[in-house]
Design brief:
12 helices, 12 strands
Length: 333
């Protein structure tokens, strides 16, 4: 199957997820896009946005067809209650997770070659009494994957995380040799196998200011990070660091590495989002499937206004197509 099928979830129905999916559907794509959503909600939103759309029932028994402007294949899943743009409703929290489960199961069974996710609102899912910390953790749970790595990327920069949605006070205790070995191995192998980079070079940030200054500002670099990196280098990885985070994001470092590995969420991602907000995407590494996502939230105040920026979704679909092609070529060999 040279033409990939890509499942798309619209995320929180009260947010801009449905809007940006409908915007993406106005373009041609070298893939069959299958949106997993409530068709009535999409039709209502398209009418409000004055976007032409022809929803076509997804037929898994037919060969995939390239996305044509103004059309969209759909796998219908019904909302519990009608969605009101800009207004969260806990009754639809289970719907959001059901769309994700369908996409994940479809990717695992190879009905879809990748999935692209729209933004979800964690708070309303938790308010509905469903424990949920984020897409990354949910994907790992649903695919039975012990460890995954969150990586955000623009055309110019990739930043992967040792820890994800963790309170800052809990980060130092989470940075262990085992965690570093797991996450760096996942990052290295996916850069090589999914992105087609023959010999990835990774810049690893320290945990403390100035990367600990030889133990004067923290011992994690001396006692945990440096020994772990040496061990991984002995196994063949090309690793820089641990580097001070405040000086690592400069052209001298970035032009000579394929990814930056940060210790925690707000160490690496503010730099990436500053340099490419609206163009960045989220990629979950370590999964048995391909998953990309937008890098922004639900923007409830912009839902149904026509003001949503869909370019992060554009990049997420583009990279998903590229990763599918890399997988296909690797399979051909």
């Amino acid at each position: 199957m040279s033409l990939p099928r890509i499942a798309i979830t619209t995320g929180e129905p009260a947010g801009i997820g449905p809007d940006i999916v409908l915007m993406a559907a106005q373009c041609a794509w070298p893939a069959e896009l299958v949106v997993i959503a409530d068709p009535n909600m999409l039709q209502q939103r398209a009418q409000a946005l004055k976007l032409p759309i022809e929803l076509q029932t997804y037929r898994p028994d037919l060969p995939p067809q390239a996305q044509q402007p103004g059309t969209l294949k759909i796998q219908p899943i019904a909302l519990a209650v009608p969605a009101i743009a800009g207004t969260l409703n806990t009754a639809n929290a289970a719907y959001v997770l059901e769309t994700l489960r369908h996409a994940i199961q479809g990717c695992v069974s190879r009905h879809y070659q990748a999935m692209v996710t729209g933004p979800v609102q964690k708070s309303v899912i938790n308010d509905a009494g469903i424990p949920f910390t984020g897409h990354t953790e949910f994907l790992a749970q649903e695919t039975g994957t012990d460890k995954v790595v969150m990586m955000l990327a623009t055309k110019e920069l990739r930043v992967a995380l040792a820890t994800t949605h963790l309170a800052l006070r809990d980060v130092p205790g989470a940075i262990t040799p085992e965690l570093l070995h797991q996450t760096l191995n996942i990052l290295y192998h996916d850069l090589r196998d999914k992105f087609g980079i023959d010999a990835p070079r990774i810049a690893v940030l320290g945990l403390n200011p100035h990367a600990g200054e030889d133990g004067h500002m923290g011992r994690e670099e001396v006692e945990i990070l440096a020994p772990a990196l040496e061990n991984l280098r002995a196994g063949g990885m090309d690793l820089l660091g641990p580097l001070p985070a405040d000086t690592a994001f400069n052209p001298k470092v970035l032009t000579n590495c394929d990814a930056v590995f940060a210790m925690y969420h707000d160490q690496g991602l503010p730099v990436l989002k500053y340099s490419g907000f609206g163009r960045a995407i989220n990629i979950t590494l370590g999964l048995p499937i391909i998953r990309t996502s937008v890098d922004h939230g639900t923007a409830l105040d912009q839902a149904e206004t026509g003001g949503a920026d869909w370019h992060s979704l554009e990049q997420a679909i583009t990279i998903a197509c590229q990763l599918c092609e890399n997988n296909r070529q690797a399979g051909d060999h």
